[in-house]
Amino acid sequence: MNNITYFKDQFEQLQEANPNDTIADLRQNGFDAFTKDGVPTYRDEDWKYTNVSSLFDKEYLIAENSTITLADVNTIRLPGYKQANELVFVNGRFIANLSTIRSGTTDLVVLPLEEAAKGEYKEIVAAHLNQSSNYLNDGIHALNTSFINGGVFVHVLKGKEPEHPVYCYHILDARQNPALAQPRSLVLADENSRLQITESYTTLGASDSFNNQVMEVVVKENAYVEYYKIQNDTANASQVNSTHIRQIGRSYVHTVTITLNGGIVRNNMNLVLDAAGNETHLYGLYLLKGKSHADNHTLIDNLKPNCFSNQLYKGIADDTSTAVFNGRIMVQPNAQKTNAYQSNKNILLSENATINTKPQLEIFADDVKCSHGCTIGQLDEEAMFYLRARGIPKESAEVLLLQAFAADIVDQIKPEPLRSYVSKLIYEHLAIQ
């Protein structure tokens, strides 16, 4: 398929159908950038180990309508859903009649993004939507911006701590045709507020799917944000998932990314620390088998002084899978007294699996404490011998050791129902031979 021609036709139809849309100019700028930059290739340093060109060789169905029903949603709900605000996205579009908002509007506002962009929240949307393009300036991100349609705006109001967390279910309907989704979300945690948000991904059907997602999160003074991403989709499901978090007031952010199954998975996790005294914690776990490919790119950009960040990503690669980790910490000239720590640890289970890791520090200030490091190894032979000597079969011993390796990350999932759910997924993933 001719990428530019195909997407140009779809883009023009979208613009013609929404002539008075306040986001139309933003979409146009996005499509101009996509036309100019195209799809990234291995010649682009940030995409050196991840070839996404094959994802654009299919005639995806870009359609607003779907036959997804409430019964379908019931099969993929996360634990604790009866006490959660559930936002359902189908093929990239927020579907209000499949969603359930349990928090009151005095605590939490959830609106279609286009509605928020022209209503009482238009100044907020104008100020914060697409700030991620300052850091994610490739054709994939521009393509998502080109097709902003059916997105969602989530606002935790000032001083509020909603009792119910936010669950985002991303469903792709690939039962008849290859499915393309490009969800867009803008989330604002206002001053002195608290937000817990979790995203999960499901492809229904045997056809290929591609989820090109962008979520932008703005965190204001004294706000507290927990963000969890659970990727456990099918082998025919690929995604480029970009989460861009800006801490514009002194605040606390805690993120955990779990990647278990999928085709080609690229995660961009960006944290911009744009206020003095910010604190950020990033955790990630990728357990790969088969032909899965997972690429985790993280960026922590320290713009202001006295900020603290801690980052730990761990990975396991088996069969012919490929893992990529690129962690970048930037300390700008005004970010004196920054404390930033980064670690990436990996276990290679197969001679045919591949792990590429690249921790980076870019420091332009002179009064900082920063460190980074990475390791790639195999299972501890002494630990294996200890378990085998006590009558534990080899396969069971391997699962126990790998679960112990993953525990550092799983323990960072603070809600107990969600933590137990992920632990069960990991056990099933490791135990299946």
From TrEMBL:
A Pfam family reported for this protein in Swiss-Prot or TrEMBL: SUFBD_core
Organism (species): Pedobacter panaciterrae
Superkingdom per UniProt: Bacteria
NCBIfam families, A to Z: sufD (TIGR01981)
The SUF system FeS cluster assembly SufBD N-terminal domain, residue ranges: 5-166
Family: Belongs to the iron-sulfur cluster assembly SufBD family.
PANTHER family (UniProt xref): PROTEIN ABCI7, CHLOROPLASTIC
Name under which the protein is recorded: Fe-S cluster assembly protein SufD
SUF system FeS cluster assembly SufBD core domain span: 177-405
